[in-house]
Amino acid sequence: MTSDPVRLGIAGLGRAFMLTVPAFQADSRIRIVAAAAPRADSRAAFEAQFGGRSYASVDELAADVNLDVIYVATPHQMHADHVIAGLRGGKHVIVDKPLSVSMEDADRMVAAAAETGCH
Do 12 and 73 form a contact (C-beta atoms < 8 A)? Predict the structure, then answer.
């Protein structure tokens, strides 16, 4: 039995993403289809390499109806806001470590997951 690959959006196109992209590309169950990054040159490079869509903000990425999951690979202090944006956009979220920089942020993320029913 085969199924369609998970459509993955990337929040942050820096070092964390670059370190994980070989694993994503090697897994036929994953297809990288979109990304969010503040720098236009990063977005252009993503589009050239992956042929996907790119956005200037994680909120825009989270609103993309053609995504299943968002991988958050932004700086640690941004994790909570970006995870919550993804969850509120109806997406499941994978977050790079550490989960957060404070217990309060971690609690906010867990609460948002419970509210939205996303993982």
Answer: yes
